[in-house]
Structure prediction request, 378 residues.
Amino acid sequence: MHDPLGVALLGSTGSIGTSTLRVLSRHVERFTAVALTANGNVEALAEQVHAWSPSFVGVVSGTPPAGSNWRTGPECLIEAASRSDVDIVLNAVVGAAGLQATLAALGAGKRVALANKETLVVAGPVVMAAASNGKGSLVPVDSEHSAILQCLAGRRPEEIRRLVITASGGPFRTWPSARIATATVADALNHPTWRMGAKITIDSATLANKALEVIEAHYLFGVPYDRIDVVVHPQSIVHSFVEFTDGSTLAQLGVPSMELPILYALTHPERLPDEGVPRFDPVTAGSLDFEPVRHADFPALGLGIAAGRTGGAAPAVFNAANEAAVAAFLAGQLTFGQISERIAGALDDLSGRPGETLEDLLAADAEARRHVKSRLLC
Prediction:
């Protein structure tokens, strides 16, 4: 019997983090949480520390309890990801803040279970080079990319004709255009099938999340953009399709729960028996519907895919502008319709910036955030 694998959970108090701890609690003979970090939810983190007794605890922006030896600041993410007692780093940090920790983990030879899609959007070539040059590995946690990974098991890249990523359509799938533009924060946070953090829920409402996923799939699976499609599937049962060159199409199905792709990312390519996720029942699921994307009403998707095609600094600009615009919307400083307008403005002005090095990409990220913030009153 081997000792349990040590897991560093970055973003432990968010929706992915808490789901991961539920998965780990069902498999304590295989995994143990040796490092926990959170952004600023000190109270929730303290409860997790009490339950798991990790050897490392970090908080990025909060104040640790008196007398604790918690690490603080953004550097705690890198420290947690690089520890010698860590075998797997599950990166559930929201936004581009997770990039440096992913690179550190790959450089230290860790398996990175990646729920932080922005890492590949901002610096895809840099991250993939780090994964191939070191002893580390990259396994996706997003349900869509986990589905593709499962469908591709044992297949050669040249056998892939097309990837089809499914989208729930978000809360505004059936809304008319004029109503979407004036949607409130409460409207946008009312997702019909998934319970997620605020930022990713807004991204789902704008479909910016699907743009991020298309860019991520391009890097993870080496498939050109013109062979990656998005289709709306409101039931969120089919998580993605893979079409092969002989015309066969495989799909991965499951109830809308992140616990299954989290477990698979921890065990890939093995499958571990687990009774914690509700089983998919085709009879009770009923009909499964698929619809085309309404691109004119959800322009963030097209903006992001176009940025991916442009390459260089453009994906980093798209991601950073989106993060800044979503934060402003949540703070009441922008309308819902202005999110995509601010992204488009940043891409128009900044897509041509240099993007060859990590320093270039981080500079483009910072400039895109300044661009959006400087136009909040426009």
